[in-house]
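Reading a protein record of the kind used here takes only a little practice. The integers have meaning only within a learned vocabulary of local backbone shapes. With that in mind, consider the following protein and its fold in token form:
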Amino acid sequence: PQPKGIVSWSCGGGASKKFAVVIACSQDSVLVFNLRFPNCWNGKMTDSPDHKRHMAYSTRGACPESHPVRIPTITVLFIYSPTTKFARPASGKFGSHGDFMNGWDQVLLGKLVSGLNY
């Protein structure tokens, strides 16, 4: 389980209440999975033994001193079609995983990132 500011489930999207576990939504509401990737880098390693320590999350828009390099925030939303009330998630109460792999052309990505407002 992760903090709901990083990974959450909700019904209907928008400003819906966020849950740490997969929830049963009504038949007229979609199930939404929200995943936010870390947006601060330590500036040294492109990976770490646990694939996590080289990255961190900002707090109120500021990166921690240990990870001073800001990078764009990537958020992924998965929207699942409404299901019947009898449907059950097959992967348990904490049912998702996300990885990011950069496949962008580095020159183009550099131009896009340089135009961002942090």
